[in-house]
Amino acid sequence: GVEVGPQPQGVARADVLDKMRKIVKHGLDFVQLFNEGKEFPPCTIEVFKIMEKVDYPRNKNGEIIAIIHPQLQDQDWQPLKNGDPQFLTLDGEVIPYQGDSTVYPTFINEAAYYEKKQAFVKTEKIKLTAKHLRLSVS
């Protein structure tokens, strides 16, 4: 499956559809080249590994008491460092991120995740190395 976003629920966006078409085309091009015997050299890429889901701050009744801070909103895949603004209470108090390392939040303030108690997902940036790849013909 391919998920390209973000986009609001129930909305079809031309730019997102275009991105999805491009990534599917690249995937099909790869499969064709691989099946034709092309050798792909080793490579290293950066990826984001999910660490944990982060819920909104809540009171003892389970009600949300803070929203995503404006500086974090729309900053998916951008670094969030210790002390950076994370949430903003309804009283205007900033709740900073407190962590030992820089993280890269994603799915920030997605409407589909409110009921799942998820304000965003913390990810870490890691490097993956792939060995060369070539179809082996028997």
Detailed description of the structure:
- By secondary structure, the chain is of the alpha+beta class.
- It has two domains: 1-38; 42-130, Single Sheet (N-terminal domain of TfIIb).
- Helices cover 16% and strands 25% of the residues.
- It is built from one helix and five strands; from the N terminus they run αβββββ.
- It has one helix spanning 14-35, and strands at residues 43-54, 66-68, 85-89, 94-96, 120-130.
- Strands 2-3-4 form a three-stranded antiparallel β-sheet, with no helix packed on it. Strands 1-5 form a two-stranded antiparallel sheet.
- A hairpin with a 4-residue loop joins strand 3 (85-89) and strand 4 (94-96).
- The model has no long low-confidence stretch (mean pLDDT 91).
- One of its GO terms (cellular component) is cytosol.
- Pfam families: AstE_AspA_hybrid (PF04952).
- InterPro entries: AspA/AstE_fam (IPR050178), Aste_AspA_hybrid_dom (IPR007036).
Which strand order spans the largest sheet, edge to edge or round the barrel? 2-3-4
Task: Give the SSE string.
Answer: HEEEEE
Class computed from helices, strands and strand pairing: alpha+beta
Percent helix, as a range, is 10-25%
Shape descriptor: elongated
Q: Which CATH architecture of the largest domain would you pick?
A: Single Sheet
Q: Major sheet, described briefly?
A: 3 strands, antiparallel
Which band does the percent of strand residues land in?
15-25%
* CATH classification, class level of the largest domain: Mainly Beta
Instruction: Give the overall average pLDDT.
Output: 91
Q: CATH topology of the largest domain, what is it called? A: N-terminal domain of TfIIb
Using the CA coordinates, give the radius of gyration.
Answer: 20 Å
User: How many domains?
Assistant: 2
What is the end-to-end distance?
30 Å
Query: What's the count of strands?
Result: 5
Helix count? 1
Organism: Setophaga kirtlandii (Kirtland's warbler)
Domain AstE/AspA barrel-sandwich hybrid: 44-125
GO cellular component, one term: cytosol
GO molecular function: hydrolase activity, acting on carbon-nitrogen (but not peptide) bonds, in linear amides
